[in-house]
Amino acid sequence: MWRRAQVSTRKVFDELLQGVAQDPEHAFADLRELLSDAAAALFASEHAESALTVLDDLASHRFGSLLHHYELANWVLYARAYGSVDPDPKARAIERSLREAPDPLRWLTDTWIRPSLA
Description:
Elements (H helix, E strand, L loop, with lengths): L1 H21 L1 H21 L3 H11 L13 H11 L6 H12 L3 H14 L1
Helix pairs in contact: 1-2, 2-3, 2-4, 5-6
């Protein structure tokens, strides 16, 4: 039984990696949105049960199985220690621009990287 689950998990992971390799820009956008959504929802969670609900809801996302690798608890702890409950207008504008951009990676390159190298 365990061996079948291991093979199935490996197959699912291989398919995930194939999708990333076929369209890395789209994979970047999907993962970035997932991490942003997860961090915001966990930050807004008032107790462990609501945080668990957030994680359960995100588990079905294309990259949901990878969330535990990003140590989101550290992100939330940092945000609670040094952040504000009021969203920063600049951060919201950047988030909106990234979500609306046809190619968020190009948006980041054109908006931040190229100007800083000029």
